[in-house]
Amino acid sequence: MSPEFNFFQHWYPLSPIEDLDPKRPTPVTVLGLRLVIWKPGSSGTYRVFLDQCPHRLAPLSEGRVDEKTGNLMCSYHGWQFDEQGLCTHIPQAENPQLVAKNQQNFCAAALPCCQENDLLWVWLDAKSAELAAVTPRPLSPQVDASKGFVWSSMVRDLDYDWQTLVENLADPSHVSFAHHGVQGDREKAMPIPLEITQSTSNRIEATTVGRFKTKITFEPPCHLEYAIGFGDKGQQLGLITYCIPVAPGKSRIVAQFPRNFAKTLHELTPRWWNHIKIRNQVLDGDMILLHQQEHFLQQRQPDESWKTVYKLPTSADRLVIEWRKWFDVYCQGKLPWNEVGLSRSEKTTIDDSRQELLNRYKQHTQHCSSCRGALKTLQRLQMVLLVNFILTISGVAVMPDSLRLSLGLPLMAVALLGLGAFAWLKFWLEPRFYFIDYVHADR
102-130 b/e with 16+ CB inside 10 Å = b? Predict the structure, then answer.
């Protein structure tokens, strides 16, 4: 019998470092475990604790980083914890020695964590810190500036399960159709000869041949990567994804997008613009398809397996088949939700609101420092343009007749241009941080 895969004894990236706020705790969930990310005042690196105060189990993510001590303070009763999780202060303690004598008993649960490749990583099993120390992170060789690569990153929460996310990413043939007009072209779709070159308990590799030579690697439990080579100058484009299981029917993708060409364009393109124009559209294109596919699969799985439910006759399906076999053999086709007190409940409906399924603000913008900052800036700019228009109209109205033509007319023209800019920001750009419906039939 194959050994059971231990999902808790692996490294998971929680977020790009640049999206974390060093001044306040950030909650995040992985495999049903609620965690809190925070940065001690005396440290240059973030820490990850279980999101529970040992006093009365209040969420530490609702706490704050104390300005005087730099420690994490629980907002319920003011208990404080240092970067190792040791309790340093209990405001209610009558005896000052109470804390010193009971530090180990009163400590918060700190998890092994580190920062590497611009990501914050966590090891979910606090009891195997020694194993974590000798286990390498599933890093990509493409995220390496010394090899000429540049890259950007993105995080988004998704309304479908971890296994649905991995399966979708293991399927290169859907791009031409699900992402038509964004990253694909259905008119140019063609067979994808795909060959499995390695398949073990800890690694699956596949390659494609044709115009673009592509290597696809799955390194369980979360790392799935594309390395796409083309041209005669060694150009390479990458897609590095980390598929994070959050809860039954919920997942998170942490992605990096490296390339070794067009570096100037990369430097000139704002990260937030790349997110609203391409990255979010790609994920929108999958969202409703996968949400409903997952529902239909769950309906039939009590009586059938994926082997009979799915029809997978082409070479392009080989990696999906290989991954499903791996999941069956090493994970018995399920994630360890029962170990964290969760049950795999089926979705009761597929009629979830499109506004909720494609809610970019909830799933991405609120987590992304670049998009949050851009949204705040454009909202302020809208206010400036609107106030300028009102003041200009009012000023021109009270101008002497002799000045209205020479001075008032140019001012009105500028104000009207500003009003046009306001309308563009308000009705075209701002919605892209919140919700844009993705209707495949209209593309």
Answer: eeeebbbbbbbbbeebebbbbbbebeeee
Residues in CB range of 434: below 8 A, 6 or more apart = 359, 360, 361, 365
List the beta bridge partners of residue 34.
Answer: 29
Cβ atoms of 116 and 139 within 8 Å: the answer is yes
Q: Check residue 350 and give its pLDDT.
A: 57
d(CA 93, CA 45): 30
Alpha-carbon distance of 61 to 43, in angstroms, equals: 18
Per-residue model confidence (pLDDT) at position 349: 54
What is the spatial distance between Cα 187 and Cα 190, in angstroms, rounded to a whole number? 9
Q: Which residues pair with 16 in a beta bridge?
A: 119
Q: Cα–Cα distance between 90 and 316 in angstroms, integer?
A: 60
Question: What does the block give as tokens for 46?
Answer: 């973030």
The proportion of the chain whose per-residue pLDDT surpasses 70, expressed as a percent, equals 97
Q: Where do we find the tokens 């070479």?
A: 315
pLDDT of 3 above 70: no
- pTM value? 0.93
- The span from the first CA to the last CA of the chain, in angstroms, equals 48
* 155 and 254 Cβ atoms separated by less than 8 Å: yes
Sheet order of strands, 80-81 included: 64-65, 72-73, 80-81, 87-89
| pLDDT for the residue 351 | 61
pLDDT attached to residue 1 = 44
- Mean pLDDT, rounded, of the chain: 93
- Give yes or no for a contact between 244 and 252, defined as CB atoms under 8 angstroms apart: yes
Helix axes 162-169, 280-300, angle to 10 degrees: 120
Residue appearing with tokens 């596949």: 206
Phi-psi domain of 85 (left: phi exceeds 0; alpha: psi -120 through 50; beta: other): left
Closest by CA to 255, choosing from 169, 153, 164, is: 153
Asked whether the predicted pLDDT for residue 214 surpasses 70, the reply is: yes
Please state, in angstroms and rounded to a whole number, the distance separating the CA atoms of residues 230 and 17.
31
What's 102's DSSP letter?
T
Give dist(CA 123, CA 111) in Å, integer: 6
Q: Which pair of structure tokens corresponds to residue 164? A: 């649905």
Distance from C-alpha of 28 to C-alpha of 51, rounded to nearest angstrom: 9
Decide if pLDDT at 211 tops 50.
yes
